[in-house]
Amino acid sequence: MSFALTLPVAEASLFTFGCLLIHALRRHADIVTGALACLLVLVTLLLAVAGTPEPVLRAQALALENGEAMQFLN
User: Fold this and answer.
1) Which positions, given as ranges, span the membrane (predicted)?
2) How far is 40 from 17, CA to CA, in rounded Å?
């Protein structure tokens, strides 16, 4: 299998595994719903951090090094 096909195959496998897990745990809908909501929040935060422009990340890292992190909260 070529490297170009690795990501789509991994995505399809993960989606299929998720469907299998949801189907297997359908009697515990409240727990599955809570777990999926937590996963959604984590993925959203990850995408937000990944989408943050590099100059902003550099400014925040520099402020943390200089002890000026509170300026971002004001």
Assistant:
1) 6-24, 31-50
2) 16
